[in-house]
Structure formats: structure tokens, C-alpha cells
């Protein structure tokens, strides 16, 4: 296992937010995070509906090797409880040098810059691992992802396999 970057603390919307690598002990944080997402945010993240995460998918999301896969979560304290408010990850892509990325921000933390902070953490880490390209497959009507892709300088193209999806690409 490759040792990922250490945690960073930032002030966002008047609260301390910690961005750090995910680990297997974060399973409960991840379940709570996904369960609290609105139906629309779940729809965009999972390219369709999902009510509750399966045990298998939860294991995949939290058991990250930081070699072929990587994931960083944003956490903060809400009502005296540590909560996950965002996650960014990548998984192996179609070649050795590219990775498919995904990002999800809690509904009440959207439009505050957390998406850019998380994406930059993943991008910086990907560069240290020799990744040459990150791409994201998203629903074409996902305006928050379209804005993030624009903010990051990603190019956009139609998904040749599905007219309802687009592919955002960032060469590193």
C-alpha cells in the first residue's frame, strides 16, 4: 500500500473541515454520508437511483490501496458529531496511466468550494502516482459537475455509448 498524503485542515463556511485519505475505519462515516444525500445527488453520483449502499460497494469505497485506487474524504463536526461532507476518488481506467474519478458533496455543502478543494487533493496525489489522465463519466444534466469541470479546466465530450452522459477529461 502506498502512503497517501496527510490530512489538511481548511476553514470553509466558518467551519473547520479536514480533508484526509479514507480508510476502512470510515465505513460508518461513508454509510451516513450516502444515506443523507438527497435523491438527486444520489442520482448524479451513481448515474441512477440508490437508496442504501451495499456491503460490497462499501468495502470497495473504504478499502483503498492508494496505488491503483485513491479516495479522500472531507469531514467536519456537526452537532458534536464527526460527519463526512464530501468524497473524491479514482479507480483504474482503461489504460495503466488513466483513472476514472468521481466526486460527491453533501447537499448543504455544495457551492462552497469544497468540490474544488477535494478535486485538487486528488489531482495532486494522482500526479505523484504517475497518472496521466483523470476522467469522469456524468449525466449530461449534472450542472454542479459541469461547473467543477469548468473550474478545473477539464475538456468535455459526449459519451459515445450513452447520449445522456458526458465524459470530462483532465490531462495531468
TrEMBL record:
Pfam families: Acetyltransf_3. Coiled coil: none annotated. InterPro entries: Acyl_CoA_acyltransferase, GNAT_dom. One of its GO terms (molecular function) is acyltransferase activity, transferring groups other than amino-acyl groups. It comes from the Bacteria. Residues 17-172 form the N-acetyltransferase domain. PROSITE patterns: GNAT. This is GNAT family N-acetyltransferase.
Amino acid at each position: 500500500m502506498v502512503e497517501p498524503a496527510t490530512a489538511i485542515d481548511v476553514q470553509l463556511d466558518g467551519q473547520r473541515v479536514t480533508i484526509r485519505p479514507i480508510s476502512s475505519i470510515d465505513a460508518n462515516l461513508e454509510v451516513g454520508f450516502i444515506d443523507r444525500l438527497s435523491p438527486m445527488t444520489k442520482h448524479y453520483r451513481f448515474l441512477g437511483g440508490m437508496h442504501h449502499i451495499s456491503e460490497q460497494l462499501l468495502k470497495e469505497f473504504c478499502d483503498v490501496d492508494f496505488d491503483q485506487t485513491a479516495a479522500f474524504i472531507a469531514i467536519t463536526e456537526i452537532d458534536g458529531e464527526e460527519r463526512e461532507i464530501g468524497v473524491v476518488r479514482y479507480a483504474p481506467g482503461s489504460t495503466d496511466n488513466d483513472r476514472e474519478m468521481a466526486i460527491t458533496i453533501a447537499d448543504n455543502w455544495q457551492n462552497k468550494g469544497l468540490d474544488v478543494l477535494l478535486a485538487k487533493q486528488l489531482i495532486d496525489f494522482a500526479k505523484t502516482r504517475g497518472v496521466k489522465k483523470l476522467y469522469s463519466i456524468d449525466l449530461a444534466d449534472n450542472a454542479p459537475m459541469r461547473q467543477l469541470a469548468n473550474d478545473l479546466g477539464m475538456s468535455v465530450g459526449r459519451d459515445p455509448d450513452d447520449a445522456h452522459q458526458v465524459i470530462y477529461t483532465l490531462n495531468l
